[in-house]
């Protein structure tokens, strides 16, 4: 892929994506990595200083009024090539899982970060994604090498698979982003822009905790292998890190 923008790159899966893409045998020409405060993202900053194709975008994505500025920063780098991949990775969870403990603030925060931000970023970057689809039209059909939106979801967003209850803010916001993924896939099919929801698995991150069975590096390698295999038959799908379809 020519270019990719990844949100939430100060740590965890976002940082892992940047690191793996940067050191791959055929890295993207430009990797845009967002974080709220570069001073608190030392590893990302060091990596960007060592790797010329990594560009840090320091913005709070909750501040949607800044999206035109973010788009301009990307536009200035990619030009008529557009943005090949928008990877909506940034997310939040809450430890208050059961109904008696749910707070309004937690629900609002989860929906803002996990659902509203991915939708409005996709809207903001749509012109650049359409440019990429045209510029990369030699890649027939749909793929991450033409133009794509990847929305990081979770199996906890699956309604059919929910057999334990709880996790209201996280479950509901991830189910909502899955619904957005499906709508985007239909709206953008004519533009040959691939759109999928992705479950990364249970990973050793600040969100996943130390007892998770998978480390970040292994997870990201699996995700990148799956992303490279995607085609038009996958658009609108809810997939696991290994490509397995997850029920809605």
Offer a few descriptive terms:
single chain; 248 residues; alpha/beta; Rossmann fold; seven-stranded parallel sheet; 40% helix; NAD(P)-bd_dom_sf; C-factor; SDR_fam
Draw up the topology in text:
Elements: E1 3-6, H1 12-22, E2 30-35, H2 42-50, E3 54-58, H3 67-78, E4 85-88, H4 104-135, E5 148-152, H5 168-187, E6 194-199, H6 216-229, E7 238-240
Parallel strand pairs: 1-2, 1-4, 2-3, 4-5, 5-6, 6-7
Helix pairs in contact: 1-6, 3-4, 4-5
Overall description:
The chain has helices at 12-22, 42-50, 67-78, 104-135, 168-187, 216-229; strands at residues 3-6, 30-35, 54-58, 85-88, 148-152, 194-199, 238-240. Helices cover 40% and strands 13% of the residues. It contains six helices and seven strands. It comes from Nasonia vitripennis (Parasitic wasp).
Strand order of the largest sheet: 3-2-1-4-5-6-7
Distance between the termini: 29 Å
How many alpha or pi helices? 6
Q: Give the count of structural domains.
A: 1
Structural class: alpha/beta
Largest sheet: 7 strands, parallel
Task: Encode the helix/strand succession as letters.
Answer: EHEHEHEHEHEHE
Query: C-alpha Rg, in Å?
Result: 17 Å
CATH superfamily: NAD(P)-binding Rossmann-like Domain
Give the CATH architecture. 3-Layer(aba) Sandwich
The parts where pLDDT drops under 50 for at least 5 residues are none
Mean pLDDT: 94
Q: Estimate percent helicity.
A: 25-40%
Tally the beta strands.
7
Q: Determine the oligomeric state from the structure.
A: single chain
β-strand amount: 5-15%
Q: CATH top level?
A: Alpha Beta
């Amino acid at each position: 892929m020519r270019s990719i923008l990844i949100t939430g790159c100060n740590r965890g899966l976002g940082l892992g994506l940047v690191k793996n893409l940067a050191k791959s045998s055929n890295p993207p020409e430009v990797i845009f990595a967002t974080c709220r405060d570069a001073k608190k993202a030392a590893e990302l900053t060091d990596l960007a200083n060592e790797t010329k194709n990594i560009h840090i975008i320091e913005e709070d994505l909750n501040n949607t009024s800044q999206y035109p500025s973010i788009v301009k920063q990307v536009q200035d780098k990619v030009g008529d090539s557009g943005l090949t991949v928008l990877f909506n990775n940034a997310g939040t969870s809450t430890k208050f899982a059961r109904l008696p403990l749910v707070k309004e603030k937690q629900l609002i925060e989860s929906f803002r970060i996990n659902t509203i931000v991915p939708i409005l970023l996709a809207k903001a970057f749509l012109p650049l994604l359409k440019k990429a689809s045209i510029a990369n039209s030699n890649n027939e059909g749909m793929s991450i090498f033409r133009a794509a939106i990847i929305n990081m979801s979770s199996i906890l967003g699956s309604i059919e698979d929910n057999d334990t209850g709880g996790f209201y803010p996280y479950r509901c916001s991830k189910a909502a982003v899955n619904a957005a993924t499906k709508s985007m896939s239909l709206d953008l099919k004519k533009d040959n822009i691939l759109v999928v929801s992705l479950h990364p698995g249970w990973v050793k991150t600040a969100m996943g905790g130390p007892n998770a069975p998978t480390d970040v590096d292994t997870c990201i390698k699996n995700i990148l292998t799956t992303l490279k295999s995607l085609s038009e038959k996958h658009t609108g799908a809810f997939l696991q890190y290994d490509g397995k379809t997850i029920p809605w």
